[in-house]
Amino acid sequence: MHVSHLQLADYRSYEAAYLELEPGVSTFIGPNGQGKTNLVEAIGYVATHSSHRVAHDAPLVRRGAQRAVIRAAVVRHGQTALIELEINPGRANRARLNRSPNTRMRDVLGILHTVLFAPEDLALVKGDPGERRRFLDELLTARAPRYAGVRSDYERVLKQRNALLKSAAAQNLHHRGGRDLPTLDVWDEHLAQIGAELLAARLALVAELQPLAAKAYGELTATQDPISLRYRCSATDEELDTTNRPQLVEILRAALLRARPDELRRGVSLVGPHRDDLQLWLNDLPAKGYASQGESWSYALALRLAGFELLRADGDDPVLLLDDVFAELDAERRRRLASYVRTAEQVLVTAAVPDDVPQELSGARFRVTGGSVERER
Ligand SMILES: Nc1ncnc2c1ncn2[C@@H]1O[C@H](COP(=O)(O)OP(=O)(O)OP(=O)(O)O)[C@@H](O)[C@H]1O
What we know:
The chain is α/β, with parallel strands linked by helices and 377 residues long. It has two domains: 1-113 and 316-377, Rossmann fold (3-Layer(aba) Sandwich); 124-312, Glutathione S-transferase Yfyf (Class Pi), Chain A, domain 2. The chain is 41% helix and 23% strand. The protein has helices at 36-48, 122-126, 129-143, 146-170, 182-221, 245-266, 287-290, 293-313, 331-341; strands at 2-11, 14-20, 24-29, 68-76, 79-87, 94-97, 100-103, 114-117, 227-232, 277-282, 285-286, 319-323, 346-351, 364-369, 372-375. The strands form three sheets. The chain has a six-stranded antiparallel β-sheet with strand order 2-1-4-5-6-7, with helices on one face. The protein has a six-stranded mixed β-sheet with strand order 8-12-13-3-14-15, with helices on both faces. Strand 6 and strand 7 (100-103) form a beta hairpin. Adenosine-5'-triphosphate is lined by residues 12-13, 30, 32-38, 59, 61-63, 324, 350, 352.
């Protein structure tokens, strides 16, 4: 798939921007702070309905404006879908598909697939478990949009359950072991059921990612260093060896029972997919805390490339967004990454310095300065 047009109104530093894009490689060059990342962020937003840089939408709207609009034409298998997103911080965002006003946000999720590589990816390896959970969940949702619903159902259950636990903690109910809290039993069951669905999907995804990430890491670094992805579930100390949902429901139910006194004391949910982690191992050591800067960065790239391979195997190349990644790599790794990604249907690259972009990625070139984007001829 590829994006053939992008139009922005009041998005970040852009009052108005319009670009025509082609399949193949396009490079966006310009000095720091001119709006290169804002462009790829906007395309990523169309795919995931979130930004890789901020957790909330407010910074996406141009200072002084009320709302931002992103319009993107996405060409898939010869058909064009016109997606329009209106970002209204503090209020519901709105979507239109092919100009139809009767579109829900979730109707346009999963039309455009992107894989974004950015300096922030280092947090995949070095950051909190939430970064890795988000990586898995975004990939799940790209492959099967219904997981957006599963994730938001899970978030809702968690919020309700936490509110209940918080008020129980305030009333010191843990002294009675929570026996007279039938509503908590109901929320436990919801959490176990929906949590198991998410857990099963994540475990299956990790199993698929493992060989692809190992291959990508080997190719990027030209080493045989073994990497392994291990899903750590908060419900058990052992490594889970099943993706069977009824079994996972049982495991979560039992863990919730065990955790209840602690949860009532602390007033938060301590068990479930929101507390899990994807541990990344390199050479039989956890990458977090042991891997070098260069190894961590290659690991993060390998995870993104594995995601790319999975989406590609599902039948359509995602659009690759490479935001300022070459500056972080030595010449050899730049070349290796470039030859890996240049086979994708569309690759959009940003760089402050043209020389950072390997020759393998020559293509259309755009100059970005002060909120305007011009194609170089
Ligand atoms: N909501 C906003 N309203 C107005 N301007 C904004 C908004 N958000 C970001 N900006 C501006 O956008 C610019 C940053 O754009 P961007 O991150 O795309 O830069 P870049 O060209 O990728 O730079 P670098 O090469 O340093 O990564 C900054 O000048 C910032 O002040």
